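Title: Prediction job returns without error message
Component: structure pipeline
Severity: low
Priority: P3
Assignee: unassigned

Description:
Job completed but the reporter wants confirmation the result is attached to the right record. Sequence as submitted:
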Amino acid sequence: MSVDGCLSALLTRGLVRTRPAADMLAPSSLLSGSGAPLPLDHARLLSLSNGLDAYGGYFRVFGVGPWSVRDMRRWNAPEGWRRAWDGRADGWWFIGETAWGDQYAYATAGEDPLEFDATVYRLDACRLEAEPIAACFGDFLRDEVARNAAAPRDETTVAARHRFGDLEPSVQLTYVPSLLAGGDEDLAHVVELGAREAMTLAGDSYRALAAVPAATA
């Protein structure tokens, strides 16, 4: 199914919230100083909707510029939340996320941060450990976003929506204390935080855990 067909099906069923289309021919649509563009199927989606969110905001696809779901360039800025991960976020260009902070990304290579192949990866929010989930953006839109928009495979996400309702794409759900710090996987310990704050906190928790063996050796 094409990107156009997939988006049309999602809209017909009322499963996504869209944004005004991005002008993908404008210089502002280029994501690096060297002018690197997104893969064509990804750019096609943004030319129809400047990002989108599904299942009440629990799955997000970022866009470009201030009127998008979230501006990819700002989200990927090295001086932002990525800095808290002490290099672990390097080598990735993040294009979306779940409400839990799991990141969707392309792997980057070389000096140009957008020299990537089309494979889409999911990086978990606790450790940023990556797994490939789609061979291209079109497959990602169909098999990850559309499938979860209709019926998420994660029962905790379903339960969280019953508890917290729909979310704004600027918000993430976070366990306090962190699961890495021994917190219980219980929705009673989940709070809403701004996405940058949540990802910074997750990076701080990961660095603290990584430092434990050296401190106790």
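Comment from assignee: result matches the submitted record. The first helix runs from residue 3 to 12.
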